[in-house]
Amino acid sequence: MNFNENKPIYLQITDGIMDDILSGTYPPDGRLPSVREYAARVEVNANTVMRSYDWLQQQGIIFNKRGIGFFVMPEAKKRILEMRKEVFFKEESSYFFGRLASFELSPEDVAVLYSKYLSDIRKTNN
Questions:
Q1: Which end of the chain is more exposed for a tag (fewer CB within 10 A), N or C?
Q2: Within 13 Å and on the Cβ side, how many CA atoms surround 97?
Q3: Of 64, 42, 45, nearest to 54 (Cα)?
């Protein structure tokens, strides 16, 4: 896994795991790789992965079955989407909307572009 220096590694790992949950790689009630397995996969210290798993557990995204491993919470997808929307609207939306305004795009222009974007995604996913 390639890491950037703008964000702690353990949070970059949590982002990757959440992406995998959203894509269905790790389904609800599905087991995550062990801490050691995941650490070997992404080439980091097991303590870093444990910190990621702890963070995800605190957020209600995964849970631990003692002696068995970590599993995806049934409502994990919903929780991840709620969290990501909250972050977007608190931290990223003013930059995003500011850029749209600087391009002098009207709300109607944005609606057309967004509809086309969604249509293109549906075509590639089918």
A1: C
A2: 8
A3: 64
Full-model pTM: 0.82
CA distance 113 to 106: 11
Domains of the chain: 9-75 (1.10.10.10), 77-125 (no CATH)
Average pLDDT, stretch 14-42?
A: 97
Six-digit token string for 48: 């870093």
Give per-residue pLDDT as tens, 90-124. 999 999 999 999 999 999 999 999 999 999 988 88
Asked if residues 53 and 91 have their Cβ atoms less than 8 Å apart, the reply is: no
